[in-house]
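Chain A, query sequence.
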Amino acid sequence: MTHRQPREATRREAIALSDVGHGWRSTARRAAIIAALEVNHAGAFKAELVDMWRDYTPWPFNRMPELYSGWINRHPQSYEAQYWVNDRLFKNRVASGMYERNMFARVKHLYDRHPSDIVICVHSVFVRPALYALRQLGRRTPFVSVVTDYALPPVLWYDPRADKTLVPTPPALQRGLELGLEPDKLVLTGPVIHPRFTNVTVTKEALEPNWAGQRTLASRCSSAVATAWDHCSRWPAR
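Chain A, predicted structure.
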């Protein structure tokens, strides 16, 4: 998940993700991004999925994938409270810096185990430590943050050090601008879905009225995945 391997003709990339929640899984583990990569850039990339929570965080955080669903379903008030507390906390540079430094050794270990040419991060919690580690290691590996929250994404998604931050909705784009990201680093792609949802053979007329518009939506969302990879493919090999 770091520097380019000179002996390999194929560019490599790694996706930092977790099994926490459905947004991250549908974006990466369920192969939406990878499938679009294979369709639009066949043979140009290799994809490697990394579970950051389980493999690179200490106890009890490494149990977050198992605890997450129960937490938000049984105690939504406490989950909401931690969201607002953390969102305010990580606007503070001191708190953010402490978090990045504390995670450095673990993220360095991740990069050593998963060398790559492009880093794609689909979980907000790991954007900042991943970028911090790259810069501390002197590596200029292209880094893309793929935001999966629609209405009010956590502040952790947005880091000016990222080469591109891909957002699914206008509110997510606006939040990035309000947090100081440069407009040319923010890309409004729409939601990321699997390309197979564009391969619809049934006509809209044959569908139930409340599903009539879904084909157009699916095509637009799948195009967002291709857009993400087009941004990556234009970077020269490092």
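The first strand starts at residue 11 and ends at 17. Residues 1-7, 212-222 have pLDDT under 50 and may be disordered.
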